[in-house]
Amino acid sequence: MMTVRSRMHASLRASPLRYYFHLAKARFGGSPQSDESAILSRIVGQSPRTFLEFGFHPTEYNCIGLADFKGLLVDGDDTTVRLAKAVLPKRIEARQSFITLDNIDSLGTHFPQLGVLSVDVDGNDYWFLKALLPARPAVVVVEYNASFGLNPVTVPYEPAFDRMAKHDSGWYHGASITALTKLCKTHGYKLVAVSAAGGNVFFLPEASNMPQLDPVHAYRESTLRNRWSGTTAKEQWGRIKHMPFVDAAS
Question: How much is the pTM?
Answer without folding.
Answer: 0.88
